[in-house]
Specification:
Length: 78
């Protein structure tokens, strides 16, 4: 049976391994990207809920104290 030279086989094997490794890396990046997109979507939904909750509570504070400025470290207002 005929064979290519050993150095050619080594080079071919090395290049093939590099190509395969890069394909796996791209696949890993794509999976990570999809997970991040999903996480972003749920975080944005939570952000909407948090914004609503904050606005509602601010309305409650304004109803009780009027239109004031509150120091969030001390609770003091003017």
């Amino acid at each position: 049976m005929k064979k290519i030279e050993q150095d050619e086989l080594s080079k071919l094997t090395e290049l093939n391994r590099n190509f395969r490794d890069l394909k796996f890396e791209v696949a890993d990046i794509e999976l990570s990207f999809e997970r991040l997109k999903s996480k972003k979507k749920s975080t944005l939904a939570n952000l909407d809920i948090a914004a609503h909750d904050l606005a509602k509570y601010q309305e409650d504070i304004v109803a009780k104290y009027g239109d004031i400025t509150i120091n969030l470290q001390t609770g003091e207002y003017n």
